[in-house]
Protein backbone atom coordinates (compact mmCIF):
# COMPACT_ATOMS: atom_id res chain seq x y z
CA UNK A 1 0.00 0.00 0.00
CA UNK A 2 1.44 3.34 -1.02
CA UNK A 3 1.25 6.23 1.45
CA UNK A 4 0.14 9.41 -0.28
CA UNK A 5 0.89 11.69 2.66
CA UNK A 6 -0.99 13.30 5.54
CA UNK A 7 -4.14 13.87 3.47
CA UNK A 8 -4.56 10.10 3.20
CA UNK A 9 -4.29 9.64 6.97
CA UNK A 10 -7.10 10.04 9.48
CA UNK A 11 -6.30 12.85 11.92
CA UNK A 12 -7.58 13.59 15.41
CA UNK A 13 -9.86 16.47 14.37
CA UNK A 14 -11.30 14.38 11.52
CA UNK A 15 -12.00 11.54 13.94
CA UNK A 16 -13.76 13.95 16.28
CA UNK A 17 -15.90 15.19 13.39
CA UNK A 18 -16.64 11.56 12.47
CA UNK A 19 -18.00 10.83 15.94
CA UNK A 20 -20.06 14.01 15.98
CA UNK A 21 -21.58 12.98 12.65
CA UNK A 22 -22.29 9.53 14.09
CA UNK A 23 -23.96 11.10 17.12
CA UNK A 24 -26.16 13.16 14.79
CA UNK A 25 -27.08 10.06 12.76
CA UNK A 26 -28.05 8.11 15.85
CA UNK A 27 -30.02 11.04 17.20
CA UNK A 28 -32.07 11.12 14.00
CA UNK A 29 -32.60 7.36 14.01
CA UNK A 30 -32.84 6.55 17.73
CA UNK A 31 -36.57 5.83 17.50
CA UNK A 32 -35.94 3.40 14.63
CA UNK A 33 -33.29 1.58 16.64
CA UNK A 34 -35.60 1.43 19.63
CA UNK A 35 -38.41 0.03 17.50
CA UNK A 36 -36.14 -2.71 16.16
CA UNK A 37 -35.00 -3.53 19.68
CA UNK A 38 -38.56 -3.55 20.94
CA UNK A 39 -39.41 -6.19 18.34
CA UNK A 40 -36.36 -8.33 19.14
CA UNK A 41 -35.11 -7.27 22.56
CA UNK A 42 -35.99 -5.16 25.56
CA UNK A 43 -36.56 -1.91 23.67
CA UNK A 44 -33.89 0.30 25.22
CA UNK A 45 -31.10 0.15 22.65
CA UNK A 46 -31.90 3.38 20.80
CA UNK A 47 -32.22 5.36 24.01
CA UNK A 48 -29.02 3.90 25.47
CA UNK A 49 -26.78 4.56 22.49
CA UNK A 50 -28.25 8.02 21.89
CA UNK A 51 -27.68 8.94 25.54
CA UNK A 52 -24.12 7.58 25.47
CA UNK A 53 -23.30 9.53 22.33
CA UNK A 54 -24.78 12.65 23.89
CA UNK A 55 -22.28 12.27 26.73
CA UNK A 56 -19.54 11.56 24.19
CA UNK A 57 -20.41 14.77 22.35
CA UNK A 58 -20.04 16.79 25.53
CA UNK A 59 -16.71 15.14 26.31
CA UNK A 60 -15.39 15.66 22.79
CA UNK A 61 -16.30 19.34 22.80
CA UNK A 62 -13.77 19.78 25.58
CA UNK A 63 -10.76 18.33 23.74
CA UNK A 64 -8.59 19.31 20.79
CA UNK A 65 -7.39 15.84 19.77
CA UNK A 66 -3.95 15.42 18.30
CA UNK A 67 -4.61 11.90 17.02
CA UNK A 68 -7.50 9.43 16.51
CA UNK A 69 -6.63 7.29 19.53
CA UNK A 70 -7.37 10.20 21.86
CA UNK A 71 -10.87 10.51 20.42
CA UNK A 72 -11.61 6.80 20.73
CA UNK A 73 -10.40 6.74 24.34
CA UNK A 74 -12.67 9.65 25.20
CA UNK A 75 -15.71 8.02 23.61
CA UNK A 76 -14.91 4.63 25.13
CA UNK A 77 -14.98 6.12 28.62
CA UNK A 78 -18.47 7.54 28.10
CA UNK A 79 -19.83 4.21 26.86
CA UNK A 80 -18.24 2.20 29.65
CA UNK A 81 -20.09 4.43 32.11
CA UNK A 82 -23.41 3.65 30.42
CA UNK A 83 -25.99 1.08 31.39
CA UNK A 84 -27.47 -1.80 29.49
CA UNK A 85 -25.65 -4.42 27.45
CA UNK A 86 -24.68 -2.22 24.52
CA UNK A 87 -22.74 0.40 26.50
CA UNK A 88 -19.98 -1.93 27.72
CA UNK A 89 -19.71 -3.61 24.32
CA UNK A 90 -19.30 -0.33 22.48
CA UNK A 91 -17.00 0.87 25.23
CA UNK A 92 -14.82 -2.20 24.78
CA UNK A 93 -14.83 -1.86 20.97
CA UNK A 94 -13.91 1.81 20.96
CA UNK A 95 -11.42 1.24 23.78
CA UNK A 96 -9.54 -1.40 21.81
CA UNK A 97 -9.51 0.85 18.73
CA UNK A 98 -7.91 3.48 20.98
CA UNK A 99 -4.83 1.26 21.25
CA UNK A 100 -3.81 2.50 17.80
CA UNK A 101 -0.81 4.75 17.21
CA UNK A 102 -0.75 8.28 18.56
CA UNK A 103 -0.39 9.76 15.10
CA UNK A 104 -2.64 10.17 12.05
CA UNK A 105 -3.78 6.73 10.90
CA UNK A 106 -3.20 5.19 7.49
CA UNK A 107 -5.63 2.63 6.07
CA UNK A 108 -3.45 -0.19 7.36
CA UNK A 109 -3.74 1.26 10.88
CA UNK A 110 -7.52 1.38 10.58
CA UNK A 111 -7.63 -2.23 9.45
CA UNK A 112 -5.41 -3.31 12.34
CA UNK A 113 -7.20 -1.47 15.15
CA UNK A 114 -10.70 -2.48 14.08
CA UNK A 115 -9.59 -6.08 13.67
CA UNK A 116 -8.20 -6.09 17.21
CA UNK A 117 -11.29 -4.39 18.59
CA UNK A 118 -13.75 -6.73 16.89
CA UNK A 119 -11.83 -9.78 18.09
CA UNK A 120 -12.10 -8.42 21.64
CA UNK A 121 -15.88 -8.07 21.34
CA UNK A 122 -16.13 -11.59 20.00
CA UNK A 123 -14.07 -12.99 22.85
CA UNK A 124 -16.21 -11.21 25.42
CA UNK A 125 -19.59 -12.24 24.04
CA UNK A 126 -18.67 -15.36 22.11
CA UNK A 127 -20.57 -14.10 19.07
CA UNK A 128 -19.73 -15.20 15.55
CA UNK A 129 -20.94 -14.01 12.16
CA UNK A 130 -24.40 -15.42 11.47
CA UNK A 131 -25.72 -15.17 15.02
CA UNK A 132 -27.61 -11.87 14.59
CA UNK A 133 -25.44 -9.47 16.57
CA UNK A 134 -23.37 -6.37 15.90
CA UNK A 135 -20.54 -8.71 14.91
CA UNK A 136 -22.43 -9.36 11.67
CA UNK A 137 -21.60 -5.76 10.68
CA UNK A 138 -18.24 -5.44 12.45
CA UNK A 139 -16.58 -8.46 10.83
CA UNK A 140 -17.39 -7.57 7.19
CA UNK A 141 -16.21 -4.01 7.81
CA UNK A 142 -12.90 -5.33 9.12
CA UNK A 143 -12.54 -7.58 6.09
CA UNK A 144 -13.23 -4.64 3.78
CA UNK A 145 -10.61 -2.51 5.49
CA UNK A 146 -8.04 -5.31 5.40
CA UNK A 147 -8.65 -5.91 1.71
CA UNK A 148 -8.98 -2.28 0.66
CA UNK A 149 -6.79 -1.15 -2.21
CA UNK A 150 -7.43 2.48 -1.28
CA UNK A 151 -4.62 4.61 0.07
CA UNK A 152 -7.03 7.14 1.62
CA UNK A 153 -9.08 6.70 4.77
CA UNK A 154 -12.27 8.15 3.29
CA UNK A 155 -12.55 5.60 0.49
CA UNK A 156 -11.48 2.75 2.77
CA UNK A 157 -14.12 3.63 5.37
CA UNK A 158 -16.71 3.98 2.62
CA UNK A 159 -15.93 0.41 1.59
CA UNK A 160 -16.17 -0.67 5.22
CA UNK A 161 -19.58 1.03 5.51
CA UNK A 162 -20.91 -0.78 2.46
CA UNK A 163 -19.76 -4.11 3.88
CA UNK A 164 -21.23 -3.29 7.28
CA UNK A 165 -24.59 -2.35 5.75
CA UNK A 166 -24.68 -5.64 3.85
CA UNK A 167 -23.88 -7.49 7.05
CA UNK A 168 -26.54 -5.62 9.01
CA UNK A 169 -29.18 -6.26 6.35
CA UNK A 170 -28.36 -9.97 6.42
CA UNK A 171 -29.45 -10.14 10.07
CA UNK A 172 -33.01 -9.54 8.88
CA UNK A 173 -33.13 -13.16 7.79
CA UNK A 174 -31.48 -14.76 10.81
CA UNK A 175 -32.68 -16.51 13.92
CA UNK A 176 -30.67 -14.99 16.77
CA UNK A 177 -28.27 -17.24 18.66
CA UNK A 178 -27.05 -14.60 21.11
CA UNK A 179 -28.61 -11.85 23.19
CA UNK A 180 -32.20 -11.11 24.10
CA UNK A 181 -33.44 -11.78 20.56
CA UNK A 182 -32.41 -15.42 20.93
CA UNK A 183 -35.30 -15.87 23.39
CA UNK A 184 -37.79 -15.01 20.64
CA UNK A 185 -36.48 -17.46 18.05
CA UNK A 186 -38.36 -17.39 14.75
CA UNK A 187 -40.60 -14.55 15.91
CA UNK A 188 -37.72 -12.08 15.53
CA UNK A 189 -36.10 -13.65 12.48
CA UNK A 190 -37.16 -10.86 10.12
CA UNK A 191 -35.94 -8.03 12.38
CA UNK A 192 -32.65 -6.31 11.52
CA UNK A 193 -30.34 -6.31 14.52
CA UNK A 194 -30.18 -2.71 15.82
CA UNK A 195 -26.61 -3.11 17.03
CA UNK A 196 -25.44 -4.21 13.60
CA UNK A 197 -27.32 -1.34 11.97
CA UNK A 198 -25.70 1.17 14.30
CA UNK A 199 -22.26 -0.17 13.37
CA UNK A 200 -23.09 0.42 9.70
CA UNK A 201 -24.18 3.98 10.59
CA UNK A 202 -20.89 4.47 12.41
CA UNK A 203 -18.75 3.64 9.41
CA UNK A 204 -21.04 5.50 7.01
CA UNK A 205 -20.79 8.64 9.15
CA UNK A 206 -17.16 9.01 8.11
CA UNK A 207 -18.47 10.12 4.72
CA UNK A 208 -20.06 13.14 6.40
CA UNK A 209 -16.71 14.44 7.66
TrEMBL record:
<dbReference type="InterPro" id="IPR012737">
    <property type="entry name" value="DhaK_L_YcgS"/>
</dbReference>
<dbReference type="Pfam" id="PF02734">
    <property type="entry name" value="Dak2"/>
</dbReference>
<dbReference type="InterPro" id="IPR004007">
    <property type="entry name" value="DhaL_dom"/>
</dbReference>
<keyword id="KW-0418">Kinase</keyword>
<protein>
    <submittedName>
        <fullName>Dihydroxyacetone kinase subunit L</fullName>
    </submittedName>
</protein>
<dbReference type="GO" id="GO:0016301">
    <property type="term" value="F:kinase activity"/>
</dbReference>
<keyword id="KW-0808">Transferase</keyword>
<feature type="domain" description="DhaL">
    <location>
        <begin position="13"/>
        <end position="208"/>
    </location>
</feature>
<dbReference type="InterPro" id="IPR050861">
    <property type="entry name" value="Dihydroxyacetone_Kinase"/>
</dbReference>
<dbReference type="InterPro" id="IPR036117">
    <property type="entry name" value="DhaL_dom_sf"/>
</dbReference>
Amino acid sequence: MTDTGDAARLSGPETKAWFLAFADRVSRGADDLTDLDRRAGDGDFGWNIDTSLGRARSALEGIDPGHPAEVFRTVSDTFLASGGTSGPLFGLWFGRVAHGPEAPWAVADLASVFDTATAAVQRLGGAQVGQKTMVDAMAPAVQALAGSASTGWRDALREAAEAAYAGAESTGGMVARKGRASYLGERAADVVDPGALSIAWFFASAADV
